[in-house]
Specification:
By secondary structure, the protein is of the alpha+beta class. It is built from seven helices and 19 strands. The strands form three sheets. Strands 3, 4, 5, 6, 7, 8, 9, 10, 11, 12, 14, 17 and 19 form a 13-stranded mixed beta sheet that branches.
Length: about 350
């Protein structure tokens, strides 16, 4: 990708909050959101790393849903990497956006609002809307690129995957560069950070991996290496001298996905795992009552790859059990996921 086409930031000074950060410097700062009823100040922590040479400005954010903590660890490790001081451009790392949810192990804010449905926000609105507005104005609007880190919701796990607007050619290049086998061509949702960033012309990826309130080492390592790969692709870091695979060579795109839901309430027994290829009509699990009776088979509605699934066996009628992405070549996708799992072992040792 041609770095000159990325609208690099050439300003000698970057202003965030009440701080000015010059080129070649690194600074931690806090964005004040509100004071809570116990007189505690709620602030969003930010670390800015600016290279001496101009280049793209990338934000990496985590914990927009406060219980999705893998991304916090990914950013922690990213900031601990040697060589960040020699980057071209600027990295804005925000390890915890929803600080209230993070401190209470909750997905939501105090009023039960989902922060990722409140963008671009309003500084005269609800607490979630104020937080969204602050994050947009002080971080997102000053960037050329963004990566937002997520996991599955509570009691659900996700295969490492990228979700992005793949109809945009530049965003697709970044999605392929991230390096996970599965990328989902996903439209933006009303009120989401991705939608708000897209409206500003910012190329953005959403990374999913693992489950809420749990560290998943594979998902963490995949996320870290994916971010570094994107930084190389946009010219923030030097490229690797050799690559085992070309960018996009073993990446597969899904345009659709579907949920298999519980036909009855009961306890679920299954041997399926994320990354498994399933065929239409294949039995994915069995539901039964506490006596082991009333057994009902849960079957795949389509042929595809399991990219997410419930981790709690106690389910109610209508609960989402298995998330299946649909591919033209699902057998090849399964093979690549198996190869990717083998390659990932060297990251987690």
């Amino acid at each position: 990708m041609n770095q000159n086409s990325l609208n690099p930031t050439d300003d000698a000074w970057l202003e965030i909050g009440n701080e000015r950060i010059g080129r070649g410097s690194r600074k931690k700062l806090e964005l004040f959101v509100a004071r809570l009823f116990d007189f505690t100040d709620m602030v969003i922590p930010v670390e800015v790393v600016r290279g001496r040479k101009p280049g793209p400005t990338l934000f990496v954010s985590a914990a927009i849903h406060g219980d999705e903590i893998n991304g916090v660890e990914i950013i922690k490790r990213l900031l601990g990497r040697s060589g960040l001081g020699s980057i071209h451009g600027t990295l804005i790392a925000v390890p915890v956006v929803n600080v209230f949810g993070f401190n209470t192990n909750s997905r939501y804010l105090p009023d039960r609002r989902d922060l990722n449905r409140c963008f671009p926000g309003n500084n005269l609105g609800s607490l979630a809307s104020v937080m969204a507005s602050l994050f947009m104005n002080e971080v997102v609007s000053k960037c050329t690129h963004g990566i937002d880190l997520h996991t599955g919701a509570i009691h659900r796990t996700n295969l490492p995957q990228i979700r992005a607007d793949l109809d945009d050619s530049n965003t697709r290049i970044l999605a392929e560069a991230f390096g996970v086998p599965v990328i989902i061509n996903s439209s933006t949702r009303d009120g989401s950070l991705r939608e708000a960033a897209a409206n500003l012309g910012i190329q953005m990826l959403l990374y999913e991996g693992g489950e809420a309130l749990r560290y998943d080492e594979k998902a963490i390592q995949c996320g870290l290496h994916g971010i570094l790969s994107v930084m190389r692709t946009i010219g923030m870091l030097p490229g690797l001298k050799s690559r085992r695979h070309k960018i996009g060579e073993h990446v597969f795109m899904a345009n659709k996905s579907t949920w298999v839901r519980a036909p009855i309430s009961g306890s679920l027994s299954t041997k399926i795992k994320p990354g498994s290829r399933v065929k239409e009509g294949e039995v994915l699990g069995v539901l039964s009552d506490p006596f082991g009776e009333g057994r009902v088979e849960v079957k795949a509605s389509k042929t595809g790859i399991v990219i997410g699934m419930t981790m709690i066996p106690l389910v109610s009628h209508g609960d989402g059990l298995f998330h299946i992405a649909l591919f033209d070549n699902s057998h090849e996708v399964e093979q690549r996921i198996e190869e990717f799992d083998t390659e990932s072992h060297r990251f987690t040792k």
